[in-house]
Amino acid sequence: MDWGKRVASIRQKVKEERPLIHHITNVVVTNLTANITLAMGAAPVMAYSLKEVADMVGLAQALVLNMGTPDDVLVEAMLLAGKTANKAGIPVIFDPVGAGATPYRTEIAREIVQELRIDILRGNSSEIASVGGLGGRTRGVDATEVSLEPAEMAPKVAQKLNTVVVVTGATDYISDGQRLLAVDNGHQMLSRVTGTGCSATTVIAAFRAVEPDGVVASAAALAYYGLAAEKAGKIAQGPGSFQEALWDMLYNLEGEELAYGVRIRELRS
User: What is the CATH number of the domain that holds 210?
Assistant: First the structure.
């Protein structure tokens, strides 16, 4: 596969189709992820009320569930929206922020993957290990050491949960249990700005909204996002200017500039 052309093509479809991405996300990143969604050409909606989530998700092309600041009412809204999306064939992208940090978060994450059909599960290595029952521990929302390497973990958890698993880090790994891809695009400054992992989930959701193959959509999204971060990192003076530059790069990055810069490896096809 010519990954450069494929990534550029999916990115162009996002701009042309402007998919509506319904977020039930955390209070820390709401503004950031809405702006990231707009920057890449998609449309965000943040609707959490139990009185409207079922109606709203029916209008969307993808649903993002993010449990960064969980409470019981929010979880109920996530489950209602997720079940509605499942019935309508709308892809559900789940970001189990902080799973493994506390029993409460771990319980919520496992309930969501048991109750819903998750199309794509995206997290750091500790979060994915925790959701997958591999014993991951998380410090706040940051990854700590786990026994399995991400390249081993992604297909193992994907097979167990019957979903596409994305383990993000210095190198990102994507698997559906059979295929295994690695994405090498990215920049160290991403770890210095809050919400960049949640933003990656949003980009994945927008790509999945226009690309039916979850593995391809996830790899393409992370390559695009990572390359934008690389370009932002070259001009940023620190975390504040990096965040602004990242928005601009996501807005402008397309075509040949995008196609020539992506670094995706097929480890198992």
Answer: 3.40.1190.20
Ligand-binding annotation for 233, yes or no, is: no
CB atoms within 10 A of CB 15: 14
pLDDT tens string 54-111: 999 999 999 999 999 999 999 999 999 999 999 999 999 999 999 998 999 999 999 9
pTM here? 0.95
Distance (Å, whole) CA 82 – CA 236: 38
Q: What's the domain count of the chain?
A: 1
Q: How many residues does the chain have?
A: 269
Helices (H) and strands (E) in the chain, counts: 11, 11
Q: Which of 223, 252, 211 is nearest to 17 (CA)?
A: 211
Residue 121 pairs with which residues in a beta bridge?
94, 165
Whether 141 and 69 have beta carbons less than 8 Å apart is answered as no
| Separation of alpha carbons 231 and 133, rounded Å | 37
The answer to whether 195 is annotated as binding is: yes
Give CA separation, 21 vs 37, 75, 152, 216, in Å. Answer: 8, 18, 30, 18
168 is annotated as contributing to ligand binding:
yes
In the Cβ-directed half-sphere of 96, how many Cα atoms lie within 13 Å? 36
- Specify the amino acid at residue 128: I
1 assigned to a ligand binding site:
no
Amino acid residing at 25? T
Of 228, 191, 193, 184, nearest in space to 11 by CA:
228
Which residue type sits at 218?
S
- State which residues form the domain around 212: 3-268
Integer-rounded Cα Rg, in Å, for the chain is 17
